Amino acid sequence: MSTLEKVQSLVRDEIARAVHLHGEHYATDHEAYAVLLEEVDEVKAWVWKKRRERDREAMVRELVQVAATAQKWAASLMEGVPGPRAPGLLQAVSEIRAAARNAGDGIEGYHYTPRDLQELADHIEELAKS
Q1: Residue 20, exposed/middle/buried by CB under 10 A (0-12, 13-18, 19+)?
Q2: Which residue among 20, 56, 108, 116 sits deepest, i.e. has the most Cβ atoms within 10 Å of its Cβ?
Q3: What is the DSSP letter of 55?
Q4: pLDDT band at 66 (very low <50, low <70, confident <90, very high)
């Protein structure tokens, strides 16, 4: 087995692990982008270290996660997921609207008013439709 084939096998295994832990698809493109960005940032942290301080095995693990995340996102898009009115976002909208109804003058410890929460819910709902 070539080195590239070994990497491809690691990516397949990582995709299977991610699907098992987090489901087959991302709820939104925003979620997928955030996960991908997090993985790339972890690679960047290694790259910015001095060469002698880098952990090549850790870098490979992170790069495998980058590849797996990108492939999982691409598969989601090819299958039409996330689609309009993604269920995860709609659930969030429902919970935010309920919090707004129950907030009274605001939420203790936060500076959000019920109106702020309604505007947030409206914005998320628009994102879910796009």
Answers
A1: exposed
A2: 116
A3: -
A4: very high
